[in-house]
Specification:
Elements: E1 2-7, H1 12-22, E2 26-31, E3 54-57, E4 60-63, H2 65-75, H3 88-117, H4 123-140, H5 153-167, H6 175-186, H7 188-197
Parallel strand pairs: 1-2
Antiparallel strand pairs: 1-3, 3-4
Length: 204
């Protein structure tokens, strides 16, 4: 059986969301963050980087959210949560998957830590964030999710960063992206993931 190593308030909710969606049995092992908001040392016994999410599936230990999502959908989900392989939509979907932790993450994380620490967010990060929000809003025009009317892996992937931005109050000026985030978190499998993993973000 798959074991998911879940650090509280972490990206592991993405993995649990997909597993709930495809109905694959799994064990959830949860860890508390330290007072410094770091992963505890016990996670290094699972993976050398000591981060979450990490899954164990037989002899395989796998980290990195996008890699885990692709693996689980390929092996257990019948590739139902990504477009047909080798299609233009598949290329676009892969672009979104990489966009989240590549292009998007830096400015979102800056806003998150700004809120958590009370420090002002650098103007460069504010500008970058606004550009990304405009890009998202434009891409979502006329559709419920990134690839159409059904949430796919890229939507699951982006949900956590939108939760960070929402925690920081940074979605207030971006109503269409905020509405998209609300649609994501209303997906039944997402709600079940939150029930299993706990709150996505720390208390305000």
């Amino acid at each position: 059986m798959i074991t998911v190593h879940n650090l509280e308030y972490s990206r592991a909710m993405r993995v649990v969301w997909l597993l709930e969606e495809i109905g694959t049995p799994y064990d959830l092992k949860s860890y508390k963050r330290t007072d410094a908001y770091r992963a505890p040392p016990e996670l290094k016994a699972v993976h050398p980087l000591g981060k979450s999410p990490v899954i164990e599936d037989g002899a395989l230990t796998l980290s990195e959210s996008a890699a885990i999502l692709r693996y689980l959908d390929d092996r257990y989900g019948g590739n139902a949560h990504q477009p047909p392989a080798h299609s233009e939509d598949a290329a676009r979907h892969d672009e979104w998957l990489d966009f989240v932790e590549g292009t998007m993450s830096r400015s979102v994380v800056a806003h998150f830590w700004g809120r958590k620490s009370g420090a002002p967010v650098d103007e460069k990060m504010r500008t970058e964030f606004a550009t990304i929000m405009a890009y998202l809003a434009n891409s979502l025009e006329g559709r419920a999710f990134l690839m159409g009317e059904t949430p796919m892996l890229a939507d699951i992937q982006i949900s956590y960063l939108l939760a960070m931005a929402n925690y920081a109050g940074a979605l207030a000026d971006h109503p269409s992206v905020s509405a998209y985030f609300e649609r994501l978190m209303a997906v039944p499998a997402a709600r079940r993931a939150v029930e299993r993993c706990g709150p996505v973000m720390p208390p305000a």
